[in-house]
Amino acid sequence: MSRPKKKSPPPVELSPYMLPTCDPPKAQPKVVRFLLVLLAGWLLFLVAMASDKL
Question: pTM value?
Answer without folding.
Answer: 0.42
